[in-house]
Specification:
3 domains, single chain, alpha+beta, membrane, 31% strand, Immunoglobulin-like, elongated, 321 residues
Length: 321
């Protein structure tokens, strides 16, 4: 970086020389420091920057010197975009780089007092290369990958990688990516192929082929992963059902055992009562028959005694008469 300082303390910080490919976009980072004030016939005048200018191949950049950007002009070339301000940032962006940009660019600031006007005379050198082929650099040394791995591809040149508008191709078919870098995550067989890249506005910059091959057998396919998860869930559900059934069967067996125990107790009770009834039944019947016989005999004997007594009485009466 080049720093130039003026008599009043003004300065411009230029970047190192910049190299760019024809058709690409480059940025010239730049900062400046204007003087705070100047003495005008004994009066201190506070400085305010009112104009900024970029020109090429002119060390002063004033008057009728052609400029690529002028803050007071409404006819600036759209290829040159001023990204700075009037406070301290003088960054310039050049898009669709052309051979005519193979020059030295200078920045000039103009203030509300002529004594504060100043141009950074060293400037920044821009080199334009035409026809230089791009190169693909991979995050891996080789182009052999397994399924599920990832890789980053960078489209670069030996000259510059400033904000490149790049076209990417796989087996000759254009990809949707447009930046200088593409990231391929979870590689599959469909990512295999021959990759190339180049500037959108310069077909001569198309890179050499980069071969990328993804092995079919490597890694775990997404479908296999999903199936594996489903199998695990099925196994968990199956085990839960088996445990639930076992617990239900245990409760049923317990209930059956209780019923059998109750039936057994009732059988024992019935068996105990039956012999007792059998033992008491005949005796009771005999006693009832005997009792009836006794009652019947007693009454019969009483009647016979009465009849005998009546007969004796009757006989006695008859004799007396």
């Amino acid at each position: 970086m080049v720093v130039l300082t003026g008599a009043l303390g003004e300065r411009v910080n230029y970047p190192d020389p910049v190299c760019g490919i024809k058709g690409s976009t480059i940025t010239l980072p730049c900062t400046f420091t204007p003087p705070k004030s100047v003495n005008d016939n004994g009066t201190e005048v506070l400085i305010d920057i009112i104009r900024v200018v970029w020109c090429k191949n002119h060390t002063i950049c004033q008057g009728t010197t052609p400029s690529v950007y002028d803050s007071k002009s409404n006819n600036n070339n759209p290829r040159y975009r001023y990204l700075g301000d009037k406070k301290g940032d003088c960054t310039l962006q050049i898009s669709d780089l052309q051979e005519e940009d193979n020059k030295t660019f200078h920045f000039r600031m103009e203030a509300n007092d002529d004594k504060a006007h100043w141009t950074g005379q060293s400037g920044v050198r821009v080199t334009v290369q035409d026809g230089a082929r791009m190169k693909i650099r991979s995050s891996r040394d080789d182009g052999e990958f397994k399924r599920g791995e990832e890789v980053t591809l960078n489209c670069t040149t030996n000259c510059s990688i400033h904000q490149l508008e790049v076209s990417w191709f796989r087996d000759g078919s254009a990809l949707s990516e447009s930046g200088p870098t593409i990231h391929l995550s979870y590689l599959t067989a469909k990512d295999s192929g021959k990759y190339t890249c180049g500037l959108k506005k310069n077909n001569l910059t198309l890179s050499e082929l980069y071969s990328l091959h993804v092995e079919e057998g490597g890694g775990l396919p997404l479908a296999g992963l999903v199936v594996g998860v489903l199998l695990v869930l099925f196994a968990v559900i199956l085990v839960a059902c088996i445990i639930k059934r076992k617990r239900a069967a245990g409760r049923d067996q317990t209930a059956v055992g209780r019923d059998e125990e109750q039936k057994h107790s009732e059988n024992i009770y019935s068996n105990n009562l039956l012999p007792l009834a059998e033992q008491q039944g005949p005796n009771s019947a005999v006693e009832e028959v005997s009792y009836a016989s006794v009652q019947f005999t007693h009454k019969k004997q009483t009647r016979l005694a009465e009849e005998v007594e009546d007969s004796i009485t009757y006989s006695s009466v008859a004799r007396t008469g």
